[in-house]
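Form 12-C: Joint structure prediction
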Amino acid sequence: MSSRPVGHSEKSQLSNKASAFSIAAILGDKLPSERSGRDSTGRSAAAAITVNVGSPTLPPAASALLTHSLATHPLSSTGSETGNRGDSTSPRSIVSPHRYENVSEKSPSAMDTSEGKLGPLDICSLPNGTSRNSSPILVEPKSPPLAATNLPSSNGSVEMANITCILETKELWNKFHDLGTEMIITKSGRRMFPTLRVSFRNTDPDTRYFVLMDIVPVDSKRYRYAYHKSSWLVAGKADPPLPTRLYMHPDGPHSGLNLQKQTVSFEKLKLTNNLLDKNGRIILNSMHKYQPRIHIVKKRDNINEATSITNLDAEEFRTFVFPETVFIAVTAYQNQLITKLKIDSNPFAKGFRDSSRLSDFERESMEGLIQHHTYARSPLRSYGDGDYSDAESLKLRESSFSKVGEQGLDKNGAMMLPHWALWRPSLSAGSTPTTYSNIDQRLYAWYGSMYGFPATAAAAAAAGIVFPNLGLHPLQLPDNLRELRNAAAAANAYSGLTSSENSSPFLSGSHRFHPYLVPDEVKREGASLVEGCRP
Amino acid sequence: MSSRPVGHSEKSQLSNKASAFSIAAILGDKLPSERSGRDSTGRSAAAAITVNVGSPTLPPAASALLTHSLATHPLSSTGSETGNRGDSTSPRSIVSPHRYENVSEKSPSAMDTSEGKLGPLDICSLPNGTSRNSSPILVEPKSPPLAATNLPSSNGSVEMANITCILETKELWNKFHDLGTEMIITKSGRRMFPTLRVSFRNTDPDTRYFVLMDIVPVDSKRYRYAYHKSSWLVAGKADPPLPTRLYMHPDGPHSGLNLQKQTVSFEKLKLTNNLLDKNGRIILNSMHKYQPRIHIVKKRDNINEATSITNLDAEEFRTFVFPETVFIAVTAYQNQLITKLKIDSNPFAKGFRDSSRLSDFERESMEGLIQHHTYARSPLRSYGDGDYSDAESLKLRESSFSKVGEQGLDKNGAMMLPHWALWRPSLSAGSTPTTYSNIDQRLYAWYGSMYGFPATAAAAAAAGIVFPNLGLHPLQLPDNLRELRNAAAAANAYSGLTSSENSSPFLSGSHRFHPYLVPDEVKREGASLVEGCRP
DNA sequence: GCTTTCCCACCTAGGTGTAAAGCT
DNA sequence: AGCTTTACACCTAGGTGGGAAAGC
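Section 2 - Result
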């Protein structure tokens, strides 16, 4: 029995290049002339929609804020909507990932009941430049209303409500967003590009946090791309909802101190269309629109099973949404401009670049953007290290392309409208605006997705959404606050019992396996541990 | 200002191949006909020298065992020896990594005072086959004397003394060991090959552990390689000792349950000769002989600064030494047979393989070994998954080479003696046997080496060494038990305060930076945190 | 007709020993 | 003369989109 290393495919001689078309429209987007938040560092920060999730232990001021938010904005219950899909949202049905394989398909028609009820997102109605430079009014570092008091929570740490989340490489996200971001999903899993990278402010240096990400449907529609119109169209109702997996950042928990210094990158997260995926990748429906979300959960000290049970309601967490990271999942790129932008900005796609399509000036600008994106990945960056000259010069260069305008030309020379009007009404050419109001409410707590254990169900637990410039907005409606709280508790319980030992690529270190690849034994362990937390 | 991605070197056309010489001597080593310990799984397990480090909380039976060990074997104090080098061993001098830059060079002559005092290691006198199949009499899974009772320690967990550590890919280590293992050290850091991979038995499933590794000098000598004799010679006294860094496995802490299922691989550990290294790589002197060691430290629950201080003496840990992993650090390979074996067994060196030197049969055998080594890296392996057919067939194949004998031919056709006689007296051709008796005793607790903080000094804290077949052996003498205990406490304190968040490659995920590369800010944080634990 | 899958060329990132140059 | 450093060819490992083929 001769055993050989896994074979490597031999290279052949054919070189395929991407078809040529103008990238002017891609580059021709005005960049903000100032950076929100952290001017001194040069870091580009995106405005975040913050989802404040109240905890019973909220201090008076924070609770008042939350209450105010709830009172001044209509938070219509979508219980009936989510209830119709509720089989998969009940905690009991999420004990095992396999439960999702025959996920409920009840009442798909109920998914659209709230469509348009609350109108388009206000943030989308803002002038382009304004929306890109918006600062969260609640938590932005420059003038956080609660920063002066720095209200301690019941356990003595800095209040969660003060925490700010900043989207890195926002310029790149904006470029994709303007075209209509597409993300490839494959059976074996595909990374996102751009990578979602965030940093935090106002975390308590002495507190430890988990950072998580999930991706929720934006609406209940299925889309298709009209090539002749170069735009996305609604193709019908959404396919049956999939298990929403919560991806816990494998490095967690993080100290609040380091969260202030280091960028949290979700570059290892992978998207798949494989409903049977057992590797913790996030499962999405192709041709559906999705919104990534970032959650930060305070880690409790002295975790053990008893406290996990008794203090379930004391969990504290916070959710952030960046509208510019919305995307449509695809199995193959639809919009050629997206393909082009991916090729020109993702280093791994460099082999498809065709320098003949770009002038030296364009090439230089593009590489600046790439450099910026790559640089942001370094774990060594700290604020104020003054290494942002690239970003500086990039903006000067890119702004020179603004004359090209928002419209580009397709490969046939036809005028191309911006295709992402659905999400950027200010750029719309007549499409029916879609809202976030019926984002899927359920947040299945599957903290063990990459660790192997399905923790507990957690519906999207938004008590209210604070828009950076507009105050609270009902981006997501409250479904079951306790669910996300349970999920947070599960994260803490998992941390206390097994930590991140299954999430690191170093434990046994085969490069052939991803850190989220966990043997079934481990998955069972995790599952049982979580079960133990929920008597 | 055009910024471009880091340049990649262009490939040229010249192909350099390793010089050809026979590998028969390398392959011609009889392998053990049985596996120690885990026959049912097919996993090859190496005999470990276990260094029992007593804890004040040891239960009666374990303490009795330890006492017996101490009583029946001479544990002469080497306090004077280590005391002469003591500046760098005092906890106070290890607060900062920078302290090491001018490490003490006092009394180098004192290093050899115990040379030969205890005679050669008995394990080296064993018949070859016996030493390779030896099972630790204390802790080997098949008949652990204490397994039946499974004595709980004072905190209710399974006793540390029961824990067994097993060296993976022992066959490969033995092949190198027979030739005289050399490990390249470079300024930028070089991985070890073979990689040190261990698994554990009898860990408490509900307890969490840190797994650490350090590399300590075997003796106080400097070596040189005599090409004309194809053997290593003593070249004089050792260079001034270097700061011994404790490398904490970046995935820790691990649950005892997973430690029983998964192999802990130290493949990311790097060796360097750069005394100013700030990246947590292990610093070694070239042309010096070293012994890797594995430490497992029980993680305490409910870590906080108070308990870290008050319970310092309650730390529980255990140290394991595998003599077949001894090596000489080199900046360039000396023994061409080592070069050949590395090329033929390290997948990354495949480009230097010259198939003309090997028959198909030899090639097949070598690849089986490689496959085995690679396979052992998978984090997904669990015991009893029956995938060891490669290892099985490998042994059959390799045994057919035994006729070649222990001696090979150098490239000139001259008879080559085994060069590692110093460590394998049974293979010796007259070299003066060297012992482990004067292994450097000091174990500097530099848990923060890759995390950025030098925790505390910890001398090699051996209360006694249990040889698999021979009982206790004074491999290492007790210097300062409390030091390693402090180091363990520091590890726990670090875990409680910052966990492994600096150790993972995913936090910001640049592939250009290793997980141990931590910005100075983080290092200061870690250092101060540890300082806080040691008032 | 539209969507998905698969294999592939071509990248990034980085782990090897080589050979020549550099150092002492 | 012996040891160390450096650039580099050549690997492993795996992330890209292309395009043909397969589904559906």
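Section 3 - Comments
Chain A touches chain B through 67 residues (CB under 8 Å). The mean pLDDT of chain A is 52.
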